[in-house]
Amino acid sequence: MNPSVEFANKTGLVYSAVCKPLCQKLHLPQTAFDILMFLANNPNYTTARDIVEVRHIKANLVSVNVDKLVQEGFLERRPVPGDRRKTELACTEKAQSIIEQGRRMQDDFIRRLMAGLEEEKLEIFFEVIDTMNENLDVILEGEE
Fold first, then answer.
1. Residue 136: is it exposed, middle or buried by C-beta count within 10 angstroms (0-12/13-18/19+)?
2. Distance between CA atoms of 57 and 39, rounded to whole angstroms?
3. Which parts of the sequence belong to the HTH marR-type domain (predicted)?
4. Residue 83, SS3?
5. Which residues contact 22 (CB under 8 A, 6 or more apart)?
6. pLDDT tens-digit profile of 100-133?
7. CA Rg, the chain, in Å?
8. Could you count the other beta carbons within 10 Å of the beta carbon of residue 51?
9. What is the pLDDT of residues 47-94, one digit of tens each?
10. Residue 74 CB-density burial (10 A; 0-12 exposed, 13-18 middle, 19+ buried)
11. Consecutive H or E run containing 77
12. Which residue of 32, 50, 54, 130 could cross-link 65, Cys pair, CB 3.0 to 4.6 Å?
């Protein structure tokens, strides 16, 4: 397997495994947890469509899990001013404990993932990621 594909796949598998005990404790399906954490950690993304497009979760799973999160009081739907077709999703106060626990778990996951890497290597790694991100923007814009 291509090392990049293997790394991405393994990262996803390990992240899901690390999430599993917390999701069980919280009585939340992984997808519902992922939706809450995505909305909490990415305030520029607020709609179900954003979750589908950015997080690549299937639309039917987003719909079912958002409905459940709304019913349980963890999310609320709000109309988007100026666009009656859009509905914004917002985490409620009730979701804050889940979000805090999720962020602690995510921080621990990142700490464990980066274990053994010297500060200078981490700086280079993040510089490379930034440069690649800029290159992706250029490619998306159709420039070279």
1. exposed
2. 13
3. 1-134
4. strand
5. 33, 101, 102, 105
6. 999 999 999 999 999 999 999 999 999 999 999 9
7. 18
8. 25
9. 999 999 999 999 999 999 999 999 999 999 999 888 888 999 999 999
10. buried
11. strand 75-80
12. 32
Tokens linked to 128: 């490379």
DSSP string of 5-18?
A: HHHHHHHHHHHHHH
Q: Let me know: does 22 contact 101? Beta carbons within 8 Å.
A: yes
Total residue length of the chain = 144
Q: Which two three-digit tokens encode residue 28?
A: 């939340």
- Give residue 51's identity as a one-letter amino acid code: I
Give first-to-last CA distance, the chain, whole Å.
Answer: 30
Check residue 114 and report its DSSP letter: T
Tell me which amino acid residue 62 is: V
Tell me how far apart the alpha carbons of residues 15 and 65 are, in angstroms, rounded to a whole number.
Answer: 19
Dig out the tokens for 23 from the structure.
Answer: 């999701």
Token pair of 132, please? Answer: 């690649």
**The pTM is what?**
0.88
